[in-house]
Predict the structure of DNA-binding response regulator.
Amino acid sequence: MKILLLEDDFEYRVSIKEYLQSLGYEVDEASDGVIACDKIAKNSYHLLILDIKVPEISGHEVMRYARSLNLQTPIMIMTSLTDIKDLTIGYELGCNEYLKKPFNLAELKFRVNELMRKYYSQDDKNIIKIASNFSYDTVLKQLKNGDEVVNLSQKEINLIEFLLSRVGAFSSIEEIKYEIWEDKDIDDAGVRVHIRNIRHKTSDEFIISSRGLGYKINV
């Protein structure tokens, strides 16, 4: 399972990253809020661990950005801030857990494991089975190849969800442009690049194309 860790203190960040890796987690790191937002836009994570007082933009703004993408990824705030106003802002933005600095690594382990257990227990009602051993979780917004999560950008997730909403029917490039990009800032070639990228991360048969009809996912 993959975690994004936002922490500006280098030694603190390295220590936490190495500890989480020792527990078997894959950890991606960010030293400021802008880097964190960029990684969230381009990757899929099972958990976001965010410090609040970081350079560029705050952890609160990173949370706001993540939720604006409609991500259901659990978020744990790791901070020395204890003012009730800061706590309230965090929960209003969708924080799922608080960890007050300084903390014991055993407490970090417990809270991370509990969040993973709570949010990633299997529920077949949320799973759409796709050809060639792929499956899509509509709650977690994750595509898997067997048990392995496929790393997708937010636009790729949106495109897959749109095609899945029209199972059995082809969608034209014009329909895709309108639904995913609202017909802005994208041309036909740009849509084809996104489809090609998804096929590269999955298989050539994951998205089927038909001349004159468009694209559909092979469910």
Q: What stands out?
A: Residues 19 and 40 are 22 Å apart (CA to CA).
